[in-house]
Amino acid sequence: MAIWWARSSSRTIANHIRKCMNYKGGFMEGAVANQSCWSLLSLSHRGRPVSMPSSRGTALCSVQRFKSTVAETQLDLSSSSESDEEQSLDFPGGKVTYTPEMNFISESSNKRVPCFRVLNDDGQLIMDSDFPQVSKEVAVKMYSKMVTLQIMDITFYEAQRQGRISFYLTSAGEEAINIASAAALTEQDIILPQYREPGVLLWRGFTLQEFANQCFGNKADYGKGRQMPIHYGSKQHNFVTISSPIATQLPQAAGIAYSLKMDNKKACAVAYIGDGGTSEGDFHAGLNFAAVMEAPVIFFCRNNGWAISTHVSEQFRSDGIVVKGQGYGIRSIRVDGNDALAVYAAVSAAREMAIHEQRPILIEALTYRVGHHSTSDDSTKYRELDEIDYWKMGRNPVHRFRNWVQSNGWWTEQQETELRNSIRKQLLQAIQVAEKTENPPLTELFSDVYDHPPSNLQEQEIQLRQTINRHPNDYPCHVSV
Ligand SMILES: Cc1ncc(C[n+]2csc(CCOP(=O)(O)OP(=O)(O)O)c2C)c(N)n1
Ligand SMILES: [Mg+2]
Questions:
Q1: pTM confidence score
Q2: Distance from residue 307's CA to the centre of ligand 1 (Å)
Q3: Which helix (H) or strand (E) holds 181?
Q4: Phi and psi for 275 in degrees, rounded to 5?
Q5: Fewer C-beta neighbours within 10 Å, C or N terminus of the chain?
Q6: How many Cβ atoms from other residues are within 10 Å of residue 336's Cβ?
Q7: What are phi and psi of 272, to 5 degrees?
Q8: Rounded to the nearest whole angstrom, what is the distance from the C-alpha of residue 82 to the centroid of ligand 1?
Q9: Position 201 confidence tier, pLDDT thresholds 50, 70, 90
Q10: Taking the CA of residue 58 as centre, how many other CA atoms within 13 Å lie in the half-sphere pointing to its CB?
């Protein structure tokens, strides 16, 4: 879990609460700079004060929150005529017209929501495409990072097969989503990944050595070897540490985004999630919170067709994920996740709206998980090889982007060969160094959660040491006890 984030973020929120508390008769006077955008509403229940622990014990006070800019008006019938007005119900949240017709809203529309793209399958620009200019420098960096991600996946996957690391999970087929979404953001935007987005971290400058250290769980790993491989995190790069329980990052993203809003930051939170993750309760809690709190967060759903062996047709009956946004009052778009320019354009626009209009945005990117779910899976047991080949060859996001970059005269065959050779060498070197680096000492297994480990943890540590001493051959000799 992202301990560093939880600590610094809760401190920010606590500071805000403290700033706003003026301890006079329960309700607090706003003591923040932009007081006009605060209302005296509690976070837990409108208009009612909530109990907050304070240094003087539990005090009755109110927590202020930003006033909604749209909630009271969004359902109003702005264009309704006098007679319509008479036929409407003045309901909390806005007026609702009456109708004598008993119409059930259809479970689906006749047409599926179209998918925004800029490049065709051959990497040629589609006429009248709506996309921001991408400079040669950015385009070449994007392509180079996509290739780096590909080679990193191949190399670590091989290392797992050789028994050098315990687990791995590739992003094959989703390189454009990884790199193009990262390119459209700034370093100040806080990333809350699911797990198939290491390219975002790569884009931000996490080195191949840092990736290798985490996968090998050595002393240089920021998580001190306590997480499975691929659970990266970086405070420096505003990348919240990956946690295995799916979708937990979504309500956290709503909270982080709200914190950015309170701090008046020109940044947003970006939470990635898979199609399978949208079935978790946290997905719905996260979206609803973000909508109601008008939090600047982008929910980026990678719909790659599969959640391990569960096909999307068994996951939901809606037209994918994009339509779920409206149910929560969130602006949404469906984009071709294998088109780097379309992803870049959609995320750039989403970021702009999220920050300047202070609202959440939902993006559904259609793509395909070309690899197995992870090294613990064999996807040929539940899907056709033809299907995999179609996406791997016919709809490959890296080939497609390369065609566009090359058609601009920005990339040559020679650059391609040099880049691939150089990345391969760097990776082999990083793996060798990571493998030779000492593992974290055993004490680290029990550190960093509590200031003073509770008695049950202390007992566990003693028991573990005794067990290792009794069975030294069953434990790695290079871990210092
Ligand atoms: C709360 C929770 N339930 C189940 C799992 C087991 N699990 C790990 S990955 C996964 C599939 C997720 O699929 P999806 O969200 O589509 O992401 P993808 O792997 O396709 O990128 C499941 C069910 C988990 N880690 N956490
Ligand atoms: Mg999936």
A1: 0.86
A2: 6
A3: helix 175-183
A4: -60, -40
A5: C
A6: 25
A7: -95, 150
A8: 52
A9: very high
A10: 3
Query: What is the distance between the alpha carbons of residues 275 and 31, in angstroms, rounded to a whole number?
Result: 42
Residue nearest to atom 21 of ligand 1 (CA): 274
Whether 244 is catalytic: yes
DSSP 111: S
Q: Which of 72, 85, 158, 418 is catalytic?
A: 158
Residue 55: pLDDT band (50, 70, 90) is very low
In short, whether 244's Cβ falls inside 6 Å of ligand 1 is: yes
373 close to ligand 1 (CB < 6 Angstrom): yes
User: Stretch 359-380: mean pLDDT, rounded?
Assistant: 98
**Residues 28 and 34 sit within 8 Å (Cβ to Cβ):** no
For residue 305, the ligand closest to its alpha carbon is 2
Report which of 165, 220, 160, 211 is spatially closest to residue 444, judged by C-alpha positions: 220
Distance 374 CA to ligand 1 centre (A): 11
Q: How many residues does the chain have?
A: 481
Query: How many angstroms is it from 378 CA to the middle of ligand 2?
Result: 15
Establish whether 82 is a catalytic residue: no
309 lines ligand 1 (CB under 6 A): no
The answer, yes or no, to whether any atom of ligand 1 lies below 6 A from the CB of 198, is: no
CB 59 within 8 A of CB 52: yes
CB-neighbour burial class of residue 459 (10 A; exposed 0-12, middle 13-18, buried 19+): exposed
Q: CA-to-CA distance for 342 and 349, rounded, in angstroms? A: 11
Q: Is the CB of 275 under 6 A from ligand 1?
A: yes
Of 246, 252, 273, 372, the residue with max ligand 1 atoms within 8 A of its CB, to mutate for a pocket test, comes to: 246
Secondary structure letter of residue 119 according to DSSP:
B
Active site residue 51: no
Q: What is the pLDDT of residues 153-162, one digit of tens each?
A: 999 999 999 9
Give the 3-state secondary structure of residue 273: strand
Query: Using CB atoms within 10 A of its CB, is residue 201 exposed (0-12), middle (13-18) or buried (19+)?
Result: buried
The sign one gets for the Cα dihedral 264, 265, 266, 269 is negative
Query: Given pLDDT bands bounded at 50, 70 and 90, which one contains residue 42?
Result: very low
Residues facing 125 on adjacent strands: 119
Considering every ligand atom shown, identify the ligand nearest to the alpha carbon of residue 272 and give its number. 1
Q: What pLDDT score was predicted for residue 63?
A: 53
Give the CA distances from residue 137 to residues 133, 141, 144, 183, in Å, rounded to whole numbers and listed in that order: 12, 6, 11, 12
Closest CA to 64 of 107, 115, 98, 16: 16
Helix (H) or strand (E) segment spanning residue 420: helix 413-436
Catalytic residue among 10, 244, 376, 480: 244
8 Å CB contact between 208 and 200 = no
Asked if pLDDT for residue 48 goes beyond 50, the answer is no
Q: What tokens were used for 27?
A: 């309700």
Answer whether residue 43 shows pLDDT above 50: no
Mean pLDDT of 340-344: 98
Residue 373 falls in the annotated catalytic set: yes
